[in-house]
User: Which sequence fits this backbone?
């Protein structure tokens, strides 16, 4: 029984994706994105996003997708507005600063891991102006948020609308894009409506290692290709990225996996509430932050893997379900917690 | 019949490596290099290189391995001495400059794609000195060279020895490390003797996408880990890099593949000479640069894939054999050229 | 009558400093810091700071001094802890990010423009740890603070002590170093006791354009010289920087100027209180942030120059006195405000 | 007697420029380029260059002017084509790489310190193309060249024309712009005709420390202002840069100084030839590279200052005349050499 709830990147590769890799391994293929699979990937994402002119670049890591996307959106002397707990701020060891040439991440607060509208307005109002200040650049939103919550489509629209009005470009960190679509029961096109550049994640949801950078405006394509190569993110045997992404997109695998992960997450959340766990944030997809008595962890941690985030009496724990989590596994974890 | 001679990155993944990927796809594994396969990779490379304290980092691209290795060796105001046709100079879109924060690649000439000893001595003598100059940093050698030739062990020793005497760190771009070992009939330990940091390539020789950065001095390990993460080269599902590299190292697969590629390359070179091709450089491994009449290409290019490097009457063509090339494929290409 | 209270950089050059520039303009002098004045500058600062091994570099701008100092203290993947309203965060257009290669400025709150001890402790506790995070780097304090307040020697000692205990290097932004020394009635040596690197300002206090970067540990001298040159901050006719700094240090001119500026500032603060101004922060040196009714500004702004920082009913205004401000000028401004 | 021939930056500030500094030191002036002198500087340079829309930024160092100008012209993944001995390559400790974010300086040969037309054409032809290569960026020419020779207007036009045809932007390093104008007996407008961005030098020709970055296209003005601030090159007491430059431009002081320096240089060159010195390059302005027997230096170096560039039997020496060099000083140096 697999009781690894540490992350949705600890799980295996989904069967159809592994099969696609195996299938792609026939004979020669031209390298560096000039493989036939890639053309299909681009076509499918254009349709999915309803961005008929979009261009797509594949990379192997989520940090790479985010950092390259931001580098394509902001100048070194500009800002990236993001939530205080955004992955780009907290978990990428400064990759956005590296890739952008030193742009400044400006942290905005907001309950439930969501950027607060008024806080965003206030920050926009005070950014830029004189030559002494860093200037307005981009807004980066994450959905599913790093708190495991969701922005509704209306909330996304409100925030991206404020950005547009201020001449600020918009980026969606979609490391859990599929989980958000599944949980909101919306289309990908609805999700990306207000954005200029999207990191469309695959790795956390059944791929081996592939993320798509999707740019609405094809004018940036050549520059972004050069940035990808210069960043050492251009694969020679690129077909193995393309084949993963293509399999992920086909037959709604991306959505099915996300639905499975979310269902496990929701079952776990309900069970946790039933045993008295205090939710730190409202768990709306496949990731739960909650507090349980320390004693509950002593037993659970002997058998299950997950992270404790602090040393409080009732420590904050993070529990993530990937697409493979079974009801039995979830229930066993709940049993362990219940003691 | 696979007549793709464009590069050794157009070929498939070797069977044992693909199998290792499939086998690794069982259950959960901790991410970011904390997988059990990685520990074995490090152990095996320490033994192979006879560097008992070495540390190893895996990345997915050769450019990533080179750029990170150089970033770990030089300061932004230092130089990287390399051959005029080095991959880091010609084919990485400035990734070394990006990763090092703007270090200067200083180009050194030399016949047959090898750095000339006297030219190196002269450049070392005139580098640095005052505060107005960029300073001495690292020497980067490539074996197999970008010209398809080899440095002998003595030649490597002479050049790295000059560097050490001048306080210059040393890097080996081993994108075709295995091909060089096979062609020189030497051990890996002999190959790396004079180096501080090695890019040990797998992708061009049967892997899907994995390269090892091997640092002799473990003191740089933590810094290099941070650099890798910051460069967005740290995989979450890292086991799929580890498993590739482990399979590559096991049972001498790396050497066997290289021997096969070299044998095909040598068969092709002999055949080309027999039909009157003029060798641009002495082909010593699996890569051939030669000139044939334009008419020879008209027919060949309809059926086979490879690069023409100029528009001369007898254009310079590059032909690369990977580990899958059969005698029949080589002979068919020769037939096409013979017209 | 000079009613420019916009900044302490709108004023003229002090007489003895201008005279020193004129006097230095005799015959030839070796460039790039190899002038005889510079040797004296270094000696005098060593004595003043009681740092017998210190090395000193001169640059022409305060932003240059800060950015270079920080670049000498932190790696690109490290953090600079500073107050939310620090000059390095708010007023340097990202120069610290540029010079450090993308280090992250981490903002800490605290009343009166001073970093709060507990907030610093909390931030130190949560910085670094895993490879996904930016790491501990430096603490940068500003005295006089950007709020016009002071850190006492005890407060400086407490904060720098916490940094040392955590292995964090320390930087003092001393753009108004002299004003702080004068107001605290302490020695320069007492001020710098807990710091590794100091930006010792001259420009705001009577120089034309010169700031000293003072590094306690001479081991960084050569690296810092290279960084200065590479940053294009190394003057060829360097004697004109040295001569300014030397004149500034001689006969306590730096202290006398600061005392004059502070006295004007304190007279202005008292007068403002007398007419009912609300102090935003406690004005402890030569810079005052306060609120007055909008009507008070209508008249004043026709004759005097200073900045309004917001559009509130009682807008926040910043008033700065440089060393030339006379009692008559201060009193005239107060008259204007009194209406 | 001032026998410092080490550089044209070892000399004093010209009288009218020092006087302008003194005169500017009256009362308050708004900082950061918002001083009244600056408006006049811009107007005068527009007229001088016959660039009616040009914008001008002042900085204090020549390296700063060059590095900022190049950063405004090229992307990090582009190239700067320059002569192998260009100042930006040899004498700026990598400042162009730092300011541009790692652009690659591509070195072109050519006799007499001038870029060879055919070598430029060849390099243009082989730059860029695929995503693996750094791309075409800018051409940087230096006049007076670092060899002390001149490009004629026709030569400048031919090279900049080739650049334009290839979509390459053009930069003039005019550290000795005035000396070139004087020697060619041409107008400034003729000199800048083919360029997009010019470093117009003052420091080597009588200023204390001021260089103008002149951009033909005002569209870059705001970006360049931000780059200057971020690079810590924006002066607070900016009037002292403006006043220098204004005095330099007035009454043809820039030209008169250059004529004086050139005349001294030509007198020295003739004298050197008369005593048998071998000219390394044709001295066409105020800088001479020549070889004399070692014995000639033994005596001269005891009394005069200048650089020896190698250790040959007849060492290469560099002799530079600034605008203050008198006939008596030149003749005394010649006497010393003559022994």
Assistant:
């Amino acid at each position: 029984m697999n009781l690894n709830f540490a992350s949705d990147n600890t799980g295996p590769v989904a069967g159809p994706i592994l099969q696609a890799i195996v299938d792609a391994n026939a004979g020669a293929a031209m390298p560096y994105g000039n493989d036939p699979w890639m053309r299909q990937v681009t076509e499918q994402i254009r349709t999915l996003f309803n961005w008929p002119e979009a261009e797509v670049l594949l990379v192997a890591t989520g940090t790479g997708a985010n950092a390259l996307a931001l580098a394509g959106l902001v100048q070194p002397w500009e800002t990236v507005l993001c939530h205080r707990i955004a992955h780009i701020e907290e978990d990428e060891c400064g990759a956005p600063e590296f890739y952008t040439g030193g742009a400044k991440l400006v942290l905005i607060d907001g309950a439930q891991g969501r950027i607060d509208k008024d806080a965003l307005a206030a920050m926009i109002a005070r950014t830029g102006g004189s030559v002494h200040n860093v200037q307005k650049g981009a807004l980066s939103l994450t959905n599913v948020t790093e708190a495991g919550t969701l922005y509704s489509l209306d909330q996304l629209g409100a925030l991206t609308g404020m950005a547009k009005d201020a001449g600020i470009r918009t980026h969606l960190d979609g490391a859990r894009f599929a989980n958000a679509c599944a949980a909101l029961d919306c289309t990908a096109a609805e999700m990306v409506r207000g954005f200029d550049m999207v990191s469309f994640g695959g790795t956390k949801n059944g791929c081996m290692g592939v993320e798509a950078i999707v740019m609405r405006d094809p004018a940036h394509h050549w520059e972004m290709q050069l940035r990808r190569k210069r960043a050492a993110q251009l694969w020679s045997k690129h077909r193995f990225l393309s084949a993963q992404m293509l399999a992920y997109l086909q037959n709604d695998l991306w959505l099915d996996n996300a639905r499975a992960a979310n269902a496990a997450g929701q079952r776990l959340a309900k069970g946790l509430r039933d045993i008295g766990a205090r939710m730190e944030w409202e768990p709306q997809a496949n990731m739960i932050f909650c507090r349980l008595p320390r004693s509950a962890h002593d037993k659970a941690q002997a058998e299950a893997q997950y992270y404790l985030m602090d040393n409080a009496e009732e420590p904050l724990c993070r529990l993530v379900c990937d697409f493979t989590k079974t009801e039995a596994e979830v229930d066993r974890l709940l049993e362990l917690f219940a003691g």
Chain C is about 45% helix and 15% strand. The first helix of chain C runs from residue 15 to 24. Residues 16-252 of chain C form a domain with the Aspartate Aminotransferase; domain 2 fold (CATH 3.40.640.10). The interface with chain B takes residues 32, 75-77, 101, 131-132, 135, 223, 225-227, 229-230, 234 of chain C (CB under 8 Å).
